[in-house]
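Section 5.1 Outputs to date
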Amino acid sequence: MKRVRTAALRETVSTVSLFHSRGFAATRRESLCSAHVETVAEDQGEGQTGYGFRVARSLRELDAAAIAGEGANRALRMFGAVRPESGRCRAVLENGAAAELLEQDWGVAADVWSATSFTELRRDGLAAERWNLLHPEDRPRVPYVTQCLDKRAGPVVAASDYIKTFADQIRPFIPAGRPYRVLGTDGFGRSDSRAKLRYFFEVNRHFVAVAALKALAESGDGKAKTVSEAIKKYKLDPDKPDPTTV
């Protein structure tokens, strides 16, 4: 490891009070803490970056050593990564299996990111926006998620077991001009195996891979025919009902 590029700690404390006309009164105080570190590793002239990010209810629950270790491991894992001969690297949030499909079946290199908290990423983005609004002549602050994705190029696909609006809340902080496609579990709740549910809600690795290929086609870095071939290869039914209507 070479150095730590950035490190930050944030603590938010809020108070919620409830009252009604029949005399009920209740107050609850909540706290939320987050910490992140961006690390830099170098080996034989090659440099790679990694990040560690955690969210907790109190400062006591944040493990600085674990966050630093996470950042160091992510940076070290980047060494030896396959480099595409040309074109742009794609960022896929979550679902490493989809990245493997893109690489093995379609020759598309993809970075895999794990979003610990979309809510916290949005709070960070809104805080940066507010600071920039009130300090128009100072150097603008850049949201953390924007900093991360600015170092890569190409479409971004977010797959979550929550509804689409959960991952969609960071859309304003995706770098300008980057397609952002969100997959989620919108629809009525049901009970089944996780594999079947992810197929039903169209968030499994096959749908993530198809979404990435579609985003590439729309941005001019891929072909619509490739998307059709992927749908056929993964045996996806293009006429299956929309999960929100079932």
